[in-house]
Amino acid sequence: SIIRTMARGAFIVLEGLDRAGKSTQVSMIVEALKERNVPVERRVFPDRSTAIGGIINDYLAKKIELAPEAVHLLFSANRWECKDGILETLEKGTTLIVDRYAASGAAYSAATTGRPLSWCTSPDQGLPAPDLVLYLDVTPDTQQQRSNWGEERFERAETQRKVAENFRKLSESGNWAFVEAGLDKLEVHQKLLQKVLDLLEGCKDKPIGKLYE
Ligand code: Z5A
Ligand code: MG
C-alpha cells in the first residue's frame, strides 16, 4: 500500500462577479506564498487552453452562439477534464490558487438559463471540493469603474445582480469567506492572505472533499 509521507496542498478558489479583482488577487497570493517557500500553482477557469476551453472562449467573445444549457455543460466539462491535474497537484503537496471554479459555473448559468440552482450544480457533483472559497464582494459602481467593462457576454447589471444572489445562496454550503472588493488592492490582499495562511496548516491531514456530496 502507498503510505502518504507528504502533506497535501490546499485547494483555494477565488470567486466573485466580473472585475471583482480575482485575477489580480490570485497573482498577489501566489507571489506571497512563493516568498514564504510554500509550493503553489495557479489555475484559471474557464481553462481556455483546451479544445473545450476554445469553444467557451469563442462563446464568451460572442464569436459563436450556443444554447445556454450546452454552454453550462461545457464549463463543467472543462473542470472535469482538469480534475486529474488538480488532484495530482494537491497530492504532490502543492497548494492551488484557482481563479473561478464550480460556484461561477452554477451562479452564472442559473442566471442565464433560468434553471434552478440545483440543476446547475449537478454536473459538477463529485469534482474536487475547494478547502476555502474566497469571495470578492464587489458593488456595481466599483465594477463599472474598472477597465474594459461591458465587453463580454454576461456583463450587464441585471445579470450581475442575479449572479450575486446565486453566489450568496451557494455560500451557505462549504467554507466561504467574504471580503470587500472595493478596498485598495493591497488591503484586499492582506485580508485574503491572512485567511489563506490560517487555512494552510489545517487542511494538510484532511482528505480532499467532493463537491455537493
Ligand atoms: N463563467 C461561467 O459562466 N461559468 C463557469 O463555469 C466559469 C465562468 C468558470 C469569464 O470569466 C466569464 O465566464 C465570466 C463568468 C463565466 N463572465 N463573464 N463575462 P473571466 O474570469 O475570464 O473574466 P471576468 O471575471 O469577467 O473578468 P476579469 O476581468 O477577469 O475580473 P477579475 O479577474 O475579477 O478582475 P481583475 O482582472 O483582477 O481586475 C479588473 C480590473 O480592475 C483591472 O484593471 C485591475 O487592475 C483593477 N483592479 C483590481 N483590483 C482592484 C482594486 N482593489 N482597486 C482598484 N482597481 C482594481
Ligand atoms: Mg479575471
Structure commentary:
The chain has 213 residues and is α/β, with parallel strands linked by helices. Helix content is 47%, strand content 13%. The chain is built from nine helices and five strands, in the order E-H-E-H-H-H-E-H-H-E-H-H-E-H. It has a five-stranded parallel β-sheet, with helices on both faces. Helix 2 runs antiparallel to helix 3 (68-80), helix 3 (68-80) packs antiparallel against helix 5 and helix 5 (102-113) packs across helix 8. The two termini are 27 Å apart. The model has no long low-confidence stretch (mean pLDDT 95). Bound molecules: ligand Z5A and magnesium ion.
Helices, by number, come to 9
Sheet bearing the most strands, described? 5 strands, parallel
Q: Name the helicity range.
A: 40-55%
Give the integer mean of the pLDDT values.
Answer: 95
How are helices and strands ordered from N to C? EHEHHHEHHEHHEH
| Beta-strand share of residues | 5-15%
Instruction: Please give the radius of gyration in angstroms.
Output: 17 Å
What structural class should be given to the helix and strand makeup? alpha/beta
Unreliable runs: none
> Which geometry do the CA atoms define?
globular
What is the total tally of β strands?
Answer: 5
Please report the distance between the alpha carbons of the first and last residues.
27 Å
